Amino acid sequence: MQIGIIGLGYVGLPLAVAFAEAGCEVVGLDVDAERVAALNEGRSYIEDVPGAALAPLGERLRATGDYAELASCDAVVLCVPTPLSDSREPDLTYLVESATALAQVLRSGQLVVLESTTYPGTTRDRLLPILETSGFTAGSDFHLAFSPERIDPGRTDFTVKTTPKLVGGVTASSTERARQLYAEICDTVVVLSSPEAAELSKLLENIFRSVNIALVNELAQLCDRLEIDVWEVIEAAATKPFGFMRFDPGPGMGGHCLPVDPFYLAFKARQHDFYPEFIELAGKVNQAQPSFCVERIERALNGVRKPVNGSRVLVLGVSYKGGVGDVRESPALKIIGRLQDLGAEVSYHDSFVPELPGHGLSSVGLEDGLRGCDLAAIVTAHPDVDYEHVVGVAPLTIDFRGVTRGIEVENLVRL
Ligand SMILES: NC(=O)c1ccc[n+]([C@@H]2O[C@H](COP(=O)([O-])OP(=O)(O)OC[C@H]3O[C@@H](n4cnc5c(N)ncnc54)[C@H](O)[C@@H]3O)[C@@H](O)[C@H]2O)c1
User: Fold this and answer.
1) Which residues are annotated as catalytic?
2) Which of 65, 168, 233, 371 could form a disulfide linkage to 192, CB 3.0–4.6 angstroms apart?
3) Strands 111-114 vs 143-146: parallel, antiparallel or unpaired
4) DSSP annotation of 128
5) Whose CA is nearest to atom 25 of ligand 1?
6) CA distances from 203 to 18, 206, 208, 220 (A)
7) Pairing relation of β-strands 165-169 and 143-146?
8) Reported pTM
9) Do strands 397-399 and 2-6 pair parallel, antiparallel, or not at all (unpaired)?
10) Which residues of the chain, if any, have pLDDT below 50?
11) Interacting residues of 51 by C-beta distance below 8 A, sequence separation 6+
12) pLDDT single digits (tens) 28-46
């Protein structure tokens, strides 16, 4: 089987590798010429795909920038970004551009699958008409389905193979073709009645996380007022073996998915005169969390008679989660920006993120950073940092991730 993957990022590249490892011939397409060149030289740029995984694939995985090369594929999977516009509305530009280019080379009998996270109706109402400009009809001449990506970057216990895959096609035959495709690489394929159900299932999964993170973030703010240790409370509640699922508070919510997806659903809901207040409230609480963290930094510095203005603050971890270098929507960026506005001298250490050009910063060495700061703020906890050592060396540490639990010293403050 020959598979085309459009968009070779966090989602597309691991998927391309999974198909190639299963013996398929994979053509990866990206508009980023550097990514195309890197892959053709056997170099990976995604943490979850080690370079060593590419070498054994040989000719089974090649990259291109030319859509014409997709014409020979049996199936083409779209994994392009679906971000928000400046006005926080769904931005389907990448999807429209890639689908328009694909329509020029679409061939009878091909299966097209959309994996990008989006609102219900995108596959049928937006993608299908663009593909039909090819002159072919969806469901008969070519097949079309939605199958959400469930990848969790940095995670090793669940993989593309072991995570059940949802599929929903625009017709029964499209669904069946999509089921057969993913059966090549996934242990379990779950069939849904429509692309809309599959699109909404993905949003539910992410919004479920967003709402629960908002709940514990709000609890952390309340615990601050009540002078109760929020981590102790959560750990205690998590001993209940049923009816409770643990979520941890933090500096806010980041990444391409959780801060974005609620807006996709809200957009669709508004078109139907429905206002999902509960979901929007969760987004609001999570968006406000970085400001709360800055206030905690101000208070911690105040406790040692230092103003934020002029204080040297070392931010530890700037990606949106531990173990990855993705800074999209990372709360660390908001925290750094606000501290800079307040006059703090901000530096950061993150071995996964060498540069933050938007803030004029480069990652500093951990030891130098710790010795030269007034306060170290643990914003994202990476596995390569010894946090006991951080607390031992920095004059004052504030921990927004709960990784210093168990350490009780005067110069340590926790969320
Ligand atoms: N990153 C995640 O953890 C994750 C998890 C589940 C779902 N998703 C969803 O998957 C989709 C892709 O996300 P990602 O994190 O892989 O994004 P990414 O930015 O890492 O990768 C997208 C790739 O698409 C390429 N691209 C953009 N326009 C293109 C075009 N017209 N033609 C060809 N290539 C094009 C970009 O150059 C980039 O390499 C999004 O909808 C996202 O919400 C992401």
Assistant:
1) 257
2) 168
3) parallel
4) H
5) 7
6) 24, 5, 8, 25
7) antiparallel
8) 0.91
9) unpaired
10) none
11) 42, 43, 44
12) 999 999 999 999 999 999 9
